[in-house]
Automatic annotation (TrEMBL):
InterPro entries: DUF1468 (IPR009936)
Pfam family, one: TctB
Segments forming domain DUF1468: 10-168
Phylogenetic lineage: Bacteria, Pseudomonadati, Pseudomonadota, Gammaproteobacteria, Pseudomonadales
Keywords attached to this entry: Membrane, Transmembrane, Transmembrane helix
Name this protein carries in UniProt: Tripartite tricarboxylate transporter TctB family protein
Transmembrane residue ranges: 9-25, 45-66, 93-109, 115-132, 144-163
This protein's record includes keyword Metal-binding: no
Amino acid sequence: MNVHRYRDLIVGVIFLTGSIGYYLLSFQTPKSEIPGDIGNYFIPHLIALVSGLLSLMLIASSYLALRQTEAKPQKPAESDADTAKELSAKTRYLPVVGTVALLFAYIYALEPVGFILASATYLFLQFNISAPADRRDAKAQFRYALTSIVAAIAINSFFVNIFDVMLPQGLLD
């Protein structure tokens, strides 16, 4: 059995199991006695449900990908192991190092720059780090910028208006 082919499916099942366990454990969180309060159990439930949904999406997409690869005959000369060996360590770890550096820069810039600007910039740069080379054209850059700006504004509005949590405004104050 080639584990590399089933890696996403296995990870999806593990995360789905963890999400179900987390959801069940979240019922042990004491409920708030304040009338009209969303309660301190809301966020654990939300995290469990979202991670469960993402796990189901990963399971479905990996299952469909497996069905497609099983339908196509593979070339005997190339395998996943041969392809992985061809990639140098620098090429494989560069996105990881870039993501870690970007996270530290985001944390550092969050207070002085503000949530909306720092988050939009972080998301745009993270999209570029994570995107394959063929998805870095002008059209993709526009989509990344638009998605970053809309997501940062939506998240800020969600926290400020629904949770009454003030996020750093920074330069926009």
